[in-house]
Design brief:
Elements: H1 15-22, H2 28-31, E1 35-39, H3 43-55, E2 58-62, E3 80-81, H4 93-103, H5 110-130, E4 144-145, E5 155-156, H6 162-180, E6 183-186, E7 189-197, E8 200-208, E9 214-218, E10 221-224, H7 245-251, E11 257-258, E12 263-269, E13 292-296, E14 313-314, H8 316-320, H9 330-345, E15 354-357, H10 359-365, H11 367-385, E16 394-403, E17 406-407, E18 420-422, H12 440-460, H13 474-491, H14 499-513, H15 520-540, H16 552-576, H17 600-603, E19 605-610, E20 619-624
Parallel strand pairs: 1-2, 1-10, 2-6, 10-18
Antiparallel strand pairs: 3-5, 4-5, 7-8, 8-9, 11-17, 11-19, 12-16, 13-14, 13-15, 15-16, 19-20
Length: about 650
């Protein structure tokens, strides 16, 4: 399979402009003849659905939540990046490009990364026009702050609610189009399969989650904006409903999965407090601007944090990475925390956390200033833990968070299936092996507002004479029959173990062997264990209810069945990549100081995996990464 990224000609600065100059267009009269399906109504999905509808296309938008406002984009707290250089501290599109490419350990395409930085300039103006209440300085100018992996202030924020506020802007744009009749919104509908006609994505099979009825929906193109699959670890910062099923069903229809093992472990989550938990709470990385991270110098310390004198504290990030300190990138910060915890210096009831201390910032800036910047986060911490972070340090711990991997897409955000696009976290495109904080909201927004409207139109220009897609086509019959068979198979197992049992067990296998650290023996063992677990799942899972009514356990079972396959592919991907890069840390490949050791000679490529059928090992394809502008360097934050 030839993986053509379709990168435009010209210098790095000219590539996107050159694409837009030559992209094919659809005239307004023809747009209303073309239908587009958008699955997912978070920031990427709502923005592309609203944008295409505003242009005149007929759009169907689907979400499994009861409202697009419930999309997980609301959980992104700390901010969104843009190279505006409002602080006059040396920022630029090029510097943002460098930071992002370096932050991803040189495992992303130059052209995609530069385009994201370039489009960031327009996003802030777009969001302000929509009414997003970004933080402002006393004089009324937009304020911004730093995030991990950078030395400038480029993160625009709305206290600790940035994702929610950006989503509300996109949601209002979407609902305007719903009101005009150009978007048909299907909430409480879950995509269960992709329909291909003559090799092109032409529709989806969805299940109405309130009635259980299967529905067929056709379109001239399908856009997946369904987020990431980090919930595969069970305990993660993601909501329980987050899943990887839409992209996985597309993968099994021919869309390659790229770099699935690149999963980000976020350094500032609240630590697990017991086996009863189904998720962990994210605390914004923005807290690391003013908070200092430390552990006691004494192992198994039992004193309260305020009773431990300064000279008996180890500010390990400041010690190990003096140039960036507490703003070291997420992968590095998370591994450093795990190393201290594993060495016996963890704190808290389960000794599974580190401290995030604001005493110095409060003393220097005053409590009122800290409240202004982080007040809602401190309130959330107090409600959850019962502790006051103004009076004593927060307790934080690494937790599964974001998937850099996803469906392989070319420069136009199209997968290896013609007419199937993937936006935001559903694709792999912009972050490499590690995502810098505040780039997730950026990617989702620019994909939906500024990139896909051009690239999807470029594709749809070839369909103006196609006519309406018929849902009575045999391809729809076949896809629906397969979905019905799979649902009946799950309900017919009638075992004794819950779906959650399998999800928890899979999550622990992956966290132990394909989490913050990996090694060959562990990954090989994990593949064996996951295969055994999947076999047991299809013998012993218990799913009550039926297929023709509301059945949340059946929903979960389908998603966990997919996770059992995604988890195996993650381990294959991590086993194949015999190097350490970004979030992928192979213990066999590290420096004497414990830092990641890349192997550019052999692994400077994107792993793109093909589904080979049930029971067969996946097939690896490689997209070689060529760096013409920024040559890969040793990634150092010291």
């Amino acid at each position: 399979m030839n993986l053509d990224a379709k990168i435009p000609e010209g210098s790095l600065e000219q590539k996107w402009e050159n694409f837009k100059k030559t992209a094919k267009l659809v005239n307004p009269a023809n747009r209303k003849k073309l239908e587009v399906i958008v699955v997912g109504t978070g920031l990427a999905g709502s923005s592309i659905a609203a944008s295409l509808a505003e242009m005149g296309y007929q759009v169907k938008a689907f979400c499994f939540q009861d409202s697009p406002r419930r999309a997980h984009s609301v959980a992104a707290q700390g901010g969104v990046n843009a190279a505006k250089n409002y602080k006059n501290d040396g920022d630029s599109v090029y510097r943002m490009f460098v930071d992002t490419l370096k932050g991803g350990d040189f495992r992303a395409r130059e052209a995609n990364v530069y385009r994201m930085a370039e489009c960031s300039l327009n996003l802030i103006d777009q969001a302000v026009a929509q009414g997003v209440p970004f933080g402002r300085e006393y004089g009324g100018y937009l304020n911004n702050r730093s995030f991990g992996g950078v030395q400038v202030s480029r993160t625009f924020y709305a206290r600790g609610q940035t994702g929610q506020q950006l989503l509300l802007g996109a949601y209002q744009a979407l609902m305007r189009q719903v009101g005009k009749g150009t978007v048909k919104l299907y909430s409480r509908h879950e995509m269960l399969d992709l329909v291909l006609i003559d090799g092109k994505a032409r529709g989806i099979i969805v299940r109405n989650l309130d009635t259980g009825v299967l529905e067929r929906h056709a379109g001239h193109a399908v856009i997946l904006a369904t987020g990431g699959y980090g919930k595969i670890y069970y305990l993660s910062t993601l909501a329980m409903g987050c899943n990887g099923s839409a992209i996985w069903r597309a993968h099994k229809k021919g869309a390659l999965m790229a770099s699935p093992s690149w999963i980000q472990i976020h350094p500032t989550s609240l630590p697990q407090s017991g086996d009863y938990q189904s998720k962990l709470t994210l605390m914004s990385e923005s807290l690391r601007n003013d908070g200092r991270i430390w552990v006691p110098l004494k192992a198994d310390e039992s004193r309260k944090p305020n009773d431990i004198p300064e000279q008996e504290r180890d500010y390990y990030l400041e010690r190990r990475y003096p140039a960036f300190g507490n703003l070291a990138p997420r992968d590095i910060s998370s591994r450093a925390a795990k190393e201290r915890i594993d060495a016996g210096f963890g704190i808290g009831p389960l000794k599974n956390a580190v401290y995030l201390d604001f005493a110095k910032a409060i003393k220097e800036q005053g409590r009122a200033k800290i409240e202004e910047k982080y007040g809602n986060l401190f309130d959330m911490y107090r409600k959850i833990t019962g502790f006051d972070a103004y009076e004593e340090p927060m307790m934080i711990s690494p937790s599964a968070h974001f998937s850099m991997g996803g469906l392989w897409v070319d420069y136009e955000l199209m997968t290896t299936v013609s007419g199937l696009f993937a936006l935001g976290e559903a694709n792999f495109a912009d972050h490499g092996a590690n995502r810098l904080g505040a780039n997730s909201l950026l990617q989702a927004s620019v994909d939906g507002y500024f990139i896909a409207p051009y690239t999807v139109a470029n594709y749809l220009s070839g369909d103006i004479h196609t006519g309406k897609i018929d849902t009575n086509h045999p391809a729809f019959d076949k896809a629906q029959t397969e979905v019905e068979t799979n649902l009946k198979k799950l309900l017919g197992i009638a075992g004794t173990k819950t779906v959650d049992y399998y999800h928890k067990t899979l999550g622990k296998i992956l966290y132990d062997y394909c989490g913050l650290a990996r090694n060959e023996a562990g990954l090989k063992g994990a593949i064996v264990e996951i295969r055994k677990l999947r076999e047991d799942f299809y013998k012993n899972v218990k799913i009550p209810g039926d297929t023709v009514s509301m059945n949340s356990e059946l929903e979960k079972a389908g998603r966990v069945a997919d996770y059992l396959e995604i988890g195996e592919l993650m381990c294959f991907d991590a086993l194949e990549r015999k190097e350490s890069c970004g979030a992928h840390f192979r213990e066999e490949y590290q420096t004497a100081e414990g830092e990641a050791m890349r192997n550019d000679e052999e692994f400077q490529f994107i792993s793109a995996w093909e589904w080979a059928g049930e029971g067969s090992d996946p097939i690896l394809h490689k997209e070689e990464l060529i760096f013409e502008v920024l040559k890969p360097i040793v990634r150092s934050y010291k």
